[in-house]
């Protein structure tokens, strides 16, 4: 079941999530293109949003690399649940993010 309206664009979702996270819409939003997946770095890395229909652990490695290179702390990650192939892949993604310092409570799904 897809809980995202079919006519919603990526930026519609990004701004809705920013509002729900209490972030100002004037904060910088950087889109990182990966084949089949869109990764948005928001507010200098305090929030990452991963959207797409084929989200893989390798896509999330881009985020974990940024966390390490930029020494980011208290990062929140939002994943499009319907874009992850199966529960095993989702668990691998969550564990990889946690291994790189992202708290379980800060890994969210839409």
Q: Could you characterize the architecture of this molecule?
A:
It is a single chain. Helix content is 34%, strand content 23%. It is α/β, with parallel strands linked by helices. Strands 1-2-3-4-5 form a five-stranded mixed sheet, sandwiched between helices. The chain is globular. It starts with 9 loop residues before the first helix and ends with a strand.
Secondary-structure element pattern, one letter each: HEEEHEHE
Largest β sheet strand count, sense and barrel closure:
5 strands, mixed
- Structural class of the secondary elements? alpha/beta
Measured on Cα atoms, how large is the radius of gyration? 13 Å
Shape: globular
The side-by-side strand order for the widest beta sheet comes to 1-2-3-4-5
Q: In terms of per-residue confidence, which ranges show pLDDT below 50 for 5 or more consecutive residues?
A: none
Overall mean pLDDT: 91
End-to-end Cα distance: 12 Å
The percent range for helix content is 25-40%
What is shown here, in short?
The chain has helices at residues 10-20, 57-69, 87-99, and strands at 29-34, 37-42, 47-52, 76-79, 107-109. With 110 residues, the protein is an alpha/beta fold.
């Amino acid at each position: 079941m897809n809980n995202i309206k079919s006519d919603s664009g990526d930026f519609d979702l990004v701004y809705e999530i920013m509002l729900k996270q209490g972030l100002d819409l004037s904060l910088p939003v950087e889109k990182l293109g990966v084949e089949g997946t869109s990764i948005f770095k928001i507010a200098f890395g305090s929030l990452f949003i991963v959207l797409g229909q084929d989200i893989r652990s390798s896509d999330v490695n881009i985020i974990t690399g940024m966390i390490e290179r930029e020494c980011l702390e208290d990062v929140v990650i939002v994943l499009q649940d319907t874009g992850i192939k199966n529960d095993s892949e989702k668990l691998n993604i969550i564990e990889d993010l946690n291994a790189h310092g992202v708290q379980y409570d800060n890994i969210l799904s839409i």
